[in-house]
Amino acid sequence: MSAADLSTLPGTVSPFEKSPWDPAGFVNEYTTVGEVRRYREAELTHGRVAMLAAVGFIVGENIEDFPLFGGIVSGPAITQFQQLPRGFWESLVIAIGICEAYRVAVGWASPTGAGFNQLKTEEEYIMGELNFDPLGYLAGEEAKATSPEEFAEKVLELKNKELNNGRLAMIAISGFVAQEFAEPEGAKEIFEHLFQTIEQDVVYEVIKVEQAVEALERSG
């Protein structure tokens, strides 16, 4: 599969619409269509999880008095996992298992022979399309479209937005976690770190301005 083939997929947007960004060289002349479909499925899945994680990371640090866990969960997000009561993780694992079982049933082929770890064919399954639209948003867009071509363009636009936001979220949640682990004085919440950094920058600039003014006064 070539870069030209990749440029036809959703998510190939400016400034890489003509030459898709693939610095690790995952896609080359030996890469099969099935492998690319599996890569895209993984990207979509991880992007969706990362979007949920990024929102949960910020929200979890700012509603510490939420009554769901009796107000016992507080502090930086990377320390909240250990504070959760018994039964939460078991329930979470079961919920994730149900979701993954559904995703596998919808999109993955039966593991037989050389077809192990492969998605269903392009005719049977489009990557990431799990028929999950509880708000009926896509149906509403289809009803508003004046032609099949207009609806197809809208779907492509939505897919590009989902991929781009998922990619940003994967970078963001990695940065959130790394930042809290990297704090030399112990983990700090994301906004606490942000405002402390802004405060330090403002103080630094004020000191620099005062020093400049003093230097001008001495020279004058």
TL;DR?
The chain is built from six helices and no strands. It has helices spanning 3-6, 33-62, 88-107, 137-144, 148-182, 190-219.
Structure report:
This protein has 220 residues and is mainly alpha-helical. The chain has helices spanning 3-6, 33-62, 88-107, 137-144, 148-182, 190-219. The chain is extended.
Give me the secondary-structure category. mainly alpha
Unreliable segments (pLDDT under 50, ≥5 consecutive)?
A: none
From the N-terminal CA to the C-terminal CA, the straight-line distance is: 70 Å
Number of helices: 6
What's the average pLDDT?
86
Please tell me how large the radius of gyration is: 24 Å
Overall helicity: 55-70%
What are the secondary-structure elements, in order, as H or E? HHHHHH
Multimer state: single chain
Shape type: extended
Give the number of DSSP strands: 0
Largest β-sheet summary: none
Strand content: under 5%
List keywords for this structure.
220 residues, mainly alpha, 6 helices, 0% strand, extended
Please render the helix and strand layout as text.
Blueprint: H1 3-6, H2 33-62, H3 88-107, H4 137-144, H5 148-182, H6 190-219
Helix pairs in contact: 2-5, 4-5
